[in-house]
Amino acid sequence: xxxxxxxxxxxxxxxxxxxxxxxxxxxxxxxxxxxxxxxxxxxxxxxxxxxxxxxxxxxxxxxxxxxxxxxxxxxxxxxxxxxxxxxxxxxxxxxxxxxxxxxxxxxxxxxxxxxxxxxxxxxxxxxxxxxxxxxxxxxxxxxxxxxxxxxxxxxxxxxxxxxxxxxxxxxxxxxxxxxxxxxxxxxxxxxxxxxxxxxxxxxxxxxxxxxxxxxxxxxxxxxxxxxxxxxxxxxxxxxxxxxxxxx
Amino acid sequence: xxxxxxxxxxxxxxxxxxxxxxxxxxxxxxxxxxxxxxxxxxxxxxxxxxxxxxxxxxxxxxxxxxxxxxxxxxxxxxxxxxxxxxxxxxxxxxxxxxxxxxxxxxxxxxxxxxxxxxxxxxxxxxxxxxxxxxxxxxxxxxxxxxxxxxxxxxxxxxxxxxxxxxxxxxxxxxxxxxxxxxxxxxxxxxxxxxxxxxxxxxxxxxxxxxxxxxxxxxxxxxxxxxxxxxxxxxxxxxxxxxxxxxxxxxxxxxxxxxxxxxxxxxxxxxxxxxxxxxxxxxxxxxxxxxxxxxxxxxxxxxxxxxxxxxx
Lengths: 247, 311
Fold this sequence. Notes:
Chain A is globular, with a radius of gyration of 20 Å. Chain A contains nine helices and no strands. In chain A, helix 6 (136-163) crosses helix 7 (167-195). Chain A starts with a helix and ends in a 9-residue tail after the last helix. Chain A has 247 residues and is mostly helical. The longest helix of chain A has 34 residues, at 92-125. Chain B is an alpha/beta fold and 311 residues long. In chain B, helix 8 (221-228) crosses helix 11 (298-310). The interface between A and B is medium-sized, with 26 and 31 residues.
């Protein structure tokens, strides 16, 4: 654990502590504050009543972590620090998990900041008296969901970054699965719904209406947790320092 | 007790288009500075990577500090320091943070790290610039910082891959001096690769020459110089008559005699006693002012070896 934390701490220090990194961090915070301040300000408490905030909070890590994870190994390789890192006494597992966890912490920090920004926005805009807090389901699903999606993107990203020779290559490779996911959700599912026969569609809608949203959410989170675990196990197995020096 | 810091037996590593290390058998005793010399692409860096467990050999075996490179590489990496081809510094971190990170990796406690970092940075004149980002350092300073990083945890063996490559002459001399003093102070064995022969001659106790992955020769720098060129003696003075030259030419150990601007050059069959030759010259009436044995510099020896290998 100590070794994992050492790698993780260094990664975060490089991301936030460094001058260039600090600027990027502040830009991302400003954008998030704008987005997550704007919606609650305009929609007030209504914004919190659907599943939208949970989806939003769970998606934040996908964007905030993608750049960081692409940089994890490919960046070390590009800046020619990887070989020196591999020549230390750090175990393979600590290097791999340290990278994943630093990306996860970075991504999760953005989610928390966004949740706080939204909360401030709602409380500034609402018409009713008293302090508004998140419903416990939104809070819990947002928190856990963001960890799991953060872990997903960190795992996939580090996995890709392991074999990429440059950060750009890793970023390009990482964009592909993200696009596939978004296209599938945004266009694939509606398109599929249109192709289905009316009777099947009605049957599906009835079935969806019967689903308990809490149970559905728990199922989704559990699926994500299983995917994350598989990814981590595969990543740890694949991470062998004797295969990482590509030149 | 194992007195060999490094031992390899027929160590071999192939890449798709080339055999980078070819049946390398080598022994490096502890407590010395060992120079591993060779032209670019000879297999020096691959050898270091194999010894550090960063690459797996295709055949043969290697031992570092008594540990097998294939099965105990983690134990090797705990005990060695490395300054590889690239200095490997995190340019966005400060000089101090770079060392602090590697100190933490090596499980030095916070006070140990603080003291050790200060000691090394002061020794290398970097302490006043500890809060600057490593990326802002000159190349020479980066190499110094990387050297401090490699020595931070008091390793028993230090791998240095072309430590002065790319440095200007002054920075190279400064780094070499720092390296020599720190190595003696710390009592560390050094495995150094370079293609700078003058550097190797100055700081190495023993050298090995590698070419196309094969060890060509190994020994003390002066021995290698002597092996590479026919030994000779230069005699300064006057009165070297043709009769004297003819008589010297008859001596069994002499291969040839030639007049030079200020005296004679006598080529010998092998290195050996030359007092008899000097006595002969003096007895025959020559005025001998100065006599010295000539052997090839390591650089000359290296060039000769490489030419022989290419043929």
